[in-house]
Backbone:
């Protein structure tokens, strides 16, 4: 059985993880595993009107995301993971998953200045496209504090890690990034 190659995109909210994941998925014909669509399905199915329900939905969405990851990795599928890896527990789960499935990993850790991220997040919160189940209005103080200080470190897993500052998206060398990913996928 072949060993999966995983492109893991990590970093705080509003660093461009999902946009990058979608672009890479299109360029390299890879599936993207991300917690947010799962979470939004749970919000739609069961509602989300308080922080207790929000936290339960978050736990269940990560649980389901890891179940899907195991299915893909179990059959040697190359893929992209897009996640903030908020907690130490989630970072440890991805480490454990790598030990179990021996996948090769290229981690792309996105970062930006805290103030830039907070400004982007505020725009995102007021967007009509933002799902109301995220309860941003109830979590704003906590989010601001976490986003401005830079969140949490990326998972410590085997493989190469690229650190990319997205404070100014125009400064990112996407051409070089695509070359690096193409080489990784061919190895």
Residues:
């Amino acid at each position: 059985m072949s060993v999966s190659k995983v492109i893991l995109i990590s970093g705080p909210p509003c660093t461009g993880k999902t946009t990058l994941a979608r672009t890479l998925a299109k360029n390299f014909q890879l599936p993207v595993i991300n917690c947010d669509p799962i979470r939004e399905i749970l919000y739609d199915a069961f509602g989300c009107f308080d922080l207790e329900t929000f936290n339960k939905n978050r736990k269940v969405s990560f649980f389901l995301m890891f179940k899907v990851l195991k299915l893909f990795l179990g059959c040697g599928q190359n893929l992209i993971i897009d996640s903030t890896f908020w907690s130490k527990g989630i970072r440890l789960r991805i480490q454990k998953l790598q030990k179990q499935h021996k996948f090769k990993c290229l981690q792309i850790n996105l970062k930006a200045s805290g103030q830039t991220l907070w400004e982007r997040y505020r725009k995102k919160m007021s967007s009509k496209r933002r799902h109301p189940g995220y309860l941003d209005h109830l979590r704003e103080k906590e989010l601001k504090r976490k986003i401005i200080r830079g969140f949490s470190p990326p998972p410590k897993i085997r493989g190469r890690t690229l650190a990319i500052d997205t404070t100014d998206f125009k400064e990112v060398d996407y051409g070089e990034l695509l070359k690096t990913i193409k080489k990784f996928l061919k190895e």
About this structure: The radius of gyration is 16 Å. The first helix runs from residue 17 to 28. The beta strands are 5-10, 32-34, 79-83, 104-111, 160-165.
